[in-house]
UniProtKB/TrEMBL annotation, chain A:
InterPro entries: FTHF_cligase-like_sf (IPR024185), LUD_dom (IPR003741), NagB/RpiA_transferase-like (IPR037171). This is LUD domain-containing protein. It holds the Pfam family LUD_dom. SUPFAM superfamilies: NagB/RpiA/CoA transferase-like. Residues 86-186 form the LUD domain. It comes from the Bacteria.
Automatic annotation (TrEMBL), chain B:
This is Lactate utilization protein. Keywords: 4Fe-4S, Electron transport, Iron, Iron-sulfur, Metal-binding, Repeat, Transport. It comes from Algoriphagus limi. PROSITE patterns: 4FE4S_FER_1, 4FE4S_FER_2. Residues 292-312 form the 4Fe-4S ferredoxin-type domain.
Length: 186, 452
């Protein structure tokens, strides 16, 4: 008998009481979603800014390799996407359109339709996600409700820059992935 | 080594053990603070526990659904009855791909299966990519905590280690500097690996997808640059519905580190074009634990580590004192199920204060199970060979004369014993305790005088 059969047989042989799955209530937040979302991103060591502030920041940075996949900022792109994601190693800035954000924790949902390479939001030195204020939900419960049956090979809740506290619990931003996250809220 | 013996080693460095105690308590306080910002926190814990009840009562069906849906999505599913088979499956995939170097993100399961030494013995270079795990891997140590693998080390230790391994400046202890050195070192490894291994936080039966959570982004850096992703998952990591993730992701990071969510939460449903995902479903004692009714609930664990951070014993004795892959209270109810003899002292490494059960996000009755394991272990005590104290006690109780003499000797001795006996780093239990006041006479002596 295969291990699969053995494991399943062992489990089936165990006397267990039948249990029911609970219905999940629709827990919501109190307060202004934009305000809560901004505070959540800041707590995760990210920044939230408007269009003008973002434009000022980009022009002050002198980046020479940028990929922009967000409609309003398409003209900032300096870099042609190639087949091989390894070529993204020295990418300085990725600008991605976010689907929606979660006010309780700052998580932003991206899937294969925003990510020509799945590694893009990780490998880039700095990450910018453009998000509409209209596209905020309260908690993860509404977030999964919104994702619903949608089918994507890969989906990601990104809530901040890459960070670690593995050395004496001192927080360091920029472990392996993006060293910063900026959310442009429009 | 028994838990008290190993704990005494840890306590030799008093400054370090005090730091360990206080730091973990700080993490516990962060968990408390953030949980209080969620009005429905207790309701979420109840829901999580009920969902896991359902999973455990219906595990065979969920596993079959999960497998069928994952296969539909193009994921290759493997089943391993034990650690050995798990390791063979992983090695088999690596050999098929002609791969001699891999990157691996945090997976307690692969620690449990001792995958690293197995692969290394077979000529595969394994690079752990979580910063804490890379640090302990350089030291050839296992993680001492399931969420904070290098919590037992100080930055001066890590600075010296990185100076030796990564040629950082001697004496530079700045965490940002050291982290950046690791970033550059591991970037090379990510770019060069054809196969990446990850653990799994949750597997969703209804969609066949699985979720991996990190703060560093190391799991994703590995798998998206590699051609092949091998995900290793214990069979109890199943949840029924995608929307159940809402409950568990709200609880996990808040319980673990006091943050509202991990910064990266990746949902893997099917491989990217031209790539492969393999999923290894591992039993390794889990179906046995499922059959033990009193201990079944231990399989609800989502590996947040909250019970470790709150445990007065864990904080004061360090992760290594347990000698098991999963240390702390939850480890002390899981490990005896794997090997009751080897881990026989662990359920006793507890004050049964119940704090672990109070913070557990899936409401495992940890302290009650610790108590239950004590009963089991005591029943089997003869088979394990008795400890010195038990032998001593049973000798004394067998002989009435010995009992009388030892009693009067102890009453005198306690008065004369120096406080140093208790306030010394070798006595794990003595910290902040005092010797009892010895009665002047035994009950027998009192009875003779007053009632005899």
């Amino acid at each position: 008998m295969s291990s699969r059969e053995n494991i399943l047989k062992a489990i089936r042989g165990i006397q267990r009481e039948r249990k029911e799955l609970p219905t999940l209530p629709d827990f919501k937040l109190e307060g202004d979603l934009v305000d809560l979302f901004i505070r959540a991103i800041q707590a995760n060591k990210g920044e939230v800014m408007g269009e003008e502030e973002f434009n000022n920041w980009v022009s002050s940075c002198d980046f020479h390799s940028i990929i922009s996949l967000s409609e309003p900022f398409q003209s900032l792109s300096t870099f042609e996407l190639s087949e091989d994601p390894h070529n993204l190693n020295h990418l300085q800035l990725a600008i991605i359109q976010g689907q929606f954000g979660v006010a309780e924790n700052g998580a932003i949902w991206l899937d294969d339709s925003q990510l020509p390479h799945r590694v893009l939001p990780f490998i880039t030195e700095h990450l910018v996600i453009v998000l509409s204020k209209e596209n905020l939900v309260d908690t993860l419960h509404q977030a999964y409700e919104r994702i619903g049956e949608e089918h994507s090979g890969f989906g990601l809740f990104v809530a901040g820059p890459s960070k670690t506290a593995d050395i004496e619990q001192s927080l360091v931003v920029g472990a392996h992935g993006a060293k910063s996250l900026r959310v442009v809220l429009m | 080594m028994s838990h008290p013996k190993a704990a005494s080693q840890f306590l030799k460095d008093q400054a370090n053990s005090l730091w360990h105690d206080e730091t973990l308590w700080m993490v516990r306080e962060k968990r408390d603070a953030i949980s209080k910002t969620i009005p429905e926190w207790e309701e979420l814990r109840n829901l999580a526990s009920q969902i896991k009840d359902k999973v455990l009562s219906n595990l065979d069906v969920y596993l079959e659904n999960f497998e069928a849906n994952a296969q539909k999505n193009g994921i290759k599913v493997h089943w391993a009855k034990d650690a050995e088979e798990h390791n063979q499956i992983v090695l088999g995939i690596l050999q098929e791909k002609n791969c001699q170097a891999i990157v691996k993100s945090k997976s307690i399961l692969t620690e449990e299966c001792h995958l690293n030494p197995y692969l290394e013995k077979n000529g595969v270079e394994v690079v752990d990519t979580d910063l804490g795990e890379r640090i302990v891997q350089f030291l050839q140590q296992p993680p001492s905590h399931i969420v904070m693998p290098a919590i037992h080390l100080k930055k001066r230790d890590i600075s010296a280690l990185f100076h030796e391994k990564l040629q950082t400046e001697k004496g530079n202890e700045d965490p940002s500097y050291l982290t950046n050195a690791a970033r550059l070192h591991l970037r090379e490894k990510f770019l060069g690996s054809k196969v990446a291994i990850t653990g799994v936080n949750f597997g969703v039966a209804e969609t066949g997808e699985f979720v991996v959570c990190t703060n560093e982004g190391n799991a994703d850096m590995g798998v998206h640059l590699a051609d092949v992703h091998i995900a290793c998952m214990g069979i109890e990591k199943i949840i029924p519905r995608r929307k159940d993730l809402g409950v568990f992701l709200r609880l996990l990071a808040r319980s673990a580190t006091g943050q509202p969510i991990t910064n990266y939460n990746s949902h893997f449903r099917s491989p990217a074009k031209g790539k492969e995902i393999h999923l290894v479903l591992v039993d390794n004692g889990r179906s046995l634990q499922l059959a033990r009714e009193k201990f079944r609930n231990s399989l609800k664990c989502i590996r947040c580590g909250a019970c470790m951070n709150t445990c007065p014993i864990y904080r004061r004795s360090g992760g290594y004192s347990y000698g098991s892959t999963v240390p702390g209270p939850i480890g002390s109810i899981l490990s005896p199920g794997l090997d009751m003899k080897k881990y026989s002292t662990l359920p006793f490494a507890s004050t049964l204060c119940g704090s672990c059960s109070d913070v557990c996000p899936v409401k495992i009755n940890i302290h009650e199970q610790l108590y239950e394991w004590r009963q089991e272990i005591t029943k089997h005590h003869g088979e394990f060979g008795k400890g010195l104290s038990m032998k001593l006690a049973s000798g004394i109780f067998k002989s009435p004369l010995a009992y009388k003499i030892s009693g009067s000797t102890m009453r005198k001795a306690i008065k004369l014993l120096p406080k140093g006996l208790i306030y010394n780093p070798l006595n794990v239990w003595g910290k902040n305790r005092d010797l009892p006041e010895a009665p002047k006479e035994s009950f027998q002596e009192w009875y003779k005088k007053n009632r005899g």
